[in-house]
Design goal:
- By secondary structure, the protein is mainly alpha-helical.
- It is 37% helix and 0% strand.
- The chain contains 3 helices and no strands.
Length: 82
Amino acid sequence: MSGETERLRPEDVVGEEWAEWYRMTPAERFAESSKLWETYLVLGGSLEPEPDSESPFFDPEEWRANFADGRPGVRILRRGGV
């Protein structure tokens, strides 16, 4: 044994895709995370928390399900002359 220690590389532990993330500084990771949140919201994601039906403050009358696309429900348009 030569006394030289082999350095562990991120690729060996987490794979190439995640290794890039591990090499970033905390500030770089924060900036990249911000971009991901922006994309999530642009694609219709919501920051509204899921309701806790076990909570004593849960009101099923007030709660409405979030839609799959993150947008408000369908609007009914009147047919006929205006």
